[in-house]
Structure formats: structure tokens, C-alpha cells
Design goal:
The chain has one domain: Roll (Pnp Oxidase, Chain A). A hairpin with a 4-residue loop joins β6 (73-82) and β7 (87-99). The chain has four helices and eight strands. By secondary structure, the protein is of the alpha+beta class. 26% of the residues are buried. The protein has helices spanning 18-27, 63-69, 103-110, 140-148; strands spanning 2-6, 11-16, 30-37, 40-51, 54-59, 73-82, 87-99, 123-139. A six-stranded antiparallel barrel has the order 3-4-5-8-7-6, surrounded by four helices.
């Protein structure tokens, strides 16, 4: 982790390593997938499951499925923030989205992943991240404690 610290304000900034980013991805269940529609970025909330370094989500017909069927590069982001304490973190994963067709994988992952939104979501999409990065901002004391432990 890299540390930035604004001593006057008592705030710190961490760059998270890949291992911590993957750990945070595996602990959460709601994120956003960003796809390109023509030259316009579109961002959609999805509930997801992370397993073996891959990110999985279910979708129906539409923009996200179209991106996966053309093996598009997508961005996936999760975060957590506390506006009162001005602390939080975010993780970004970038990779190719593809529809999962292997029945064994579908059965294993779908057992862990039930759609939150109503409607048919019969397509399972997998993102294999080629790039993962993360940031954490918080008080200098709390970041210093994490670095020393």
C-alpha cells in the first residue's frame, strides 16, 4: 500500500494492493458494471458474486448481455463510503465480459447468486479482471494503524 497523508487535515490516502482489492470484491454483493454503448459510457447496478478471481452477475436481454456477447471490455466498481467521517474505499476491476455457458460453472455460481431485481435474468456473465485497483481514504491515524499491523 502506498500512503498519502495530509497532516494538516489529518486525512490519509491508501492505494490498495491487488490482494486487498480482490478480498473486498469477495466480501461485497452490489456493484456497478460500466459498458460502452457506441461511444457513450453506461453504468448499471448489479448484484454479483466473486469466485476464483472472477466476477459473476446475472442479466436479461439488453445492454449488459449485448456487451458480453461481443466480448467487450467493461469496468466493474464497488465502494463503501461514510459521509460523516469522510472515510471510504473503492475498487475498480477492468476485464472482458462473456456469457458463461459451462453448465458446471453455471450451477455452482447460480446457487450463490440470486438476482435482487425483478424480471428474467437467465444469462450468467463473467468478468475476468485484467486490471484491478483500489483506493482508501480516511483519517491518518486509522490508515497508519492498518499499515503497521
Amino acid at each position: 500500500m502506498a500512503l498519502g497523508l495530509d497532516h494538516a487535515l489529518g486525512r490519509g490516502f491508501d492505494i490498495l494492493d491487488e490482494e486487498e482489492c480482490l478480498s473486498l470484491l469477495s466480501e461485497e454483493s452490489l456493484g456497478r458494471v460500466a459498458v460502452s454503448v457506441g461511444a457513450i459510457p453506461a453504468v448499471f447496478p448489479v448484484n454479483y458474486h466473486c469466485e476464483g478471481g472472477a466476477i459473476y452477475f446475472r442479466t436479461g436481454q439488453g445492454t449488459k448481455l449485448a456487451a458480453a456477447l461481443r466480448s467487450a471490455v467493461v469496468a466493474f466498481e464497488i465502494d463503501r463510503a461514510d459521509a460523516q467521517s469522510h472515510q471510504g474505499w473503492s475498487v475498480l476491476a477492468v476485464g472482458v465480459a462473456r456469457e458463461v455457458r459451462e453448465e458446471a460453472v453455471r450451477q455452482s455460481v447460480e446457487a450463490q447468486l440470486q438476482p435482487w431485481a425483478p424480471g428474467e435474468r437467465s444469462h450468467l456473465i463473467r468478468i475476468w479482471p485484467d486490471f484491478v485497483s483500489g483506493r482508501r481514504i480516511g483519517s491518518g491515524d486509522s490508515i497508519g494503524e492498518r499499515l503497521s499491523s
